[in-house]
């Protein structure tokens, strides 16, 4: 059950407003970028001189995030391979097999270095843009 508002806070008065196409388009854009559910809420805050907060989304960030996600997945799979190789090294008693696993581990670590080298330009780009 809704709480009854007192008379000072109740929205009792209906006001009609006419605007031209340019102002209407501007208000619609502002409404779409804000958290307001309808035009009345937005106009009420504008008339009452309250702060209207809008949200913007940077589309270029989506490409960067896709690349970061892809590199993260690759690094996770390489990390899994490294963990398996280290586990096999600890379980193996044969020197020759240990040497082969160590070489495989070295190759995996080189891949990690390769992928982390890809990350630095992306992180630098983000830092320039957002910091």
From TrEMBL:
The protein, known as: Bacterial mobilisation domain-containing protein
One Pfam family per UniProt: MobC_2
InterPro entries: MobC_2
């Amino acid at each position: 059950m809704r709480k009854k508002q007192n008379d000072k806070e109740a929205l009792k008065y209906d006001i009609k407003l006419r605007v031209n196409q340019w102002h209407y388009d501007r208000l619609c854009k502002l409404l779409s970028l804000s958290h307001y559910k309808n035009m009345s809420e937005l106009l009420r805050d504008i008339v009452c001189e309250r702060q209207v907060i809008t949200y913007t989304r940077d589309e270029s960030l989506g490409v960067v995030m896709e690349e970061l996600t892809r590199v993260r997945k690759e690094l996770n799979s390489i990390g899994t391979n490294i963990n398996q190789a280290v586990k096999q090294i600890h379980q193996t008693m044969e020197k020759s097999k240990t040497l082969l696993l160590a070489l495989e581990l070295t190759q995996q670590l080189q891949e990690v270095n390769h992928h982390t080298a890809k990350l630095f330009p992306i992180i630098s780009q983000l830092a320039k843009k957002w910091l």
